[in-house]
Amino acid sequence: MPLFDLPLEELRGYLPDRDEPADFDAFWSATLAEAREFDLAAEYVPYDLPYANVDVFDVSFTGWGGHRINGWFLLPRGAQGPLPCVMHYIGYGGGRGFPHDHLLWPSAGYAVFVMETRGHGGANNGRPGATGDPHGSANPQAPGMMTRGILDPSDYYYRRVFTDAVRAVDAAAAHPAVDASRIVVGGASQGGGIAQATAALHPAVRAALVDVPFLTHFRRAVEITASDPYQELVRFLSTRRDTAEQAFRTLSYFDGLNFAARGRVPALYSVALMDDICPPSTVFGAYNHWQGPKEITVWPWNNHEGGGGYQSEEQVRYLHKLFGES
Questions:
Q1: Of 66, 84, 198, 212, which one is least surrounded by beta carbons within 10 A?
Q2: Do residues 87 and 186 touch, judged by C-beta distance below 8 A?
Q3: Distance CA 64, CA 45 (A)
Q4: Taking the CB of residue 109, how many other CB atoms lie within 10 A of it?
Q5: Is the CB of residue 184 less than 8 Å from the CB of residue 206?
Q6: What are the backbone dihedrals phi and psi of residue 43, each rounded to the nearest 5 degrees, phi first?
Q7: pLDDT tens digits for 26-36?
Q8: What is the H or E stretch that residue 214 is in?
Q9: Is 92 marked within a binding site?
Q10: Which residues, 6 or more positions from 19, have their beta carbon under 8 angstroms from its beta carbon?
Q11: Which residues form the catalytic set?
């Protein structure tokens, strides 16, 4: 994919207007209060694997609507005292996969809490899932998750997902092995978008690792990329021509630009300049609105894979520096 978005010099200063509903904060406050009426009931079941240096737990907890959400919780074996914990949110279509997919952070001395995204994990990407989405959508939808409930913010799919992500932080913070003052949210693509939202919604979050984030600057994304998942929105609107205003109003409650404007904690972003799935201007739009201390790693020659393992190394160094660890 060639360069197709704004030049890097313009991207660094790109600060788009935000379409923010007047009741944005009230909407999320009420949503989270409603979710917390359900008992969190977090369960950590030891998972039998012959790992010498890592303890693995099969996790479940109560998310939006009282629904059970699955995940993994991994700890470096023999670690002393409460540990910083990285919340890992997963990319579009992927499930929680296998424990060996998540060994980076325990090997660096951190706990990691992997939250599965409800309804995902059936895509052909090798990472199976175990969590459904019991809530049905009131409106017709295009295949995929992007238009599920899109005509009503209270019914939209990502209201449930973002709420699950906040509840996952609640679960991690209550675990005795976790230092609740050092919880980090992170993920790539959809996971990056979820992390970006959760950092704004949960006051216990200490830092954010936001890689090539999805779910950000929706209107520009659908105007300049021909790739999925944003094209799910285009296919829906090309059929339901009468619903565009209503759909974009719903999306404004979930747009990463609006969450980024509420981001106060340190954040490490990444962007790939040839990314036609999450275009660079959508990433820089959020990054430039982020209000806390921030850094961004630019990968000029990469598509949506971004920095891959190189970015993972950047993240480990970033958190070690942030937490003053050797």
A1: 66
A2: yes
A3: 21
A4: 16
A5: yes
A6: -125, 135
A7: 999 999 999 99
A8: none
A9: yes
A10: 219, 248, 252, 255
A11: 189, 275, 304
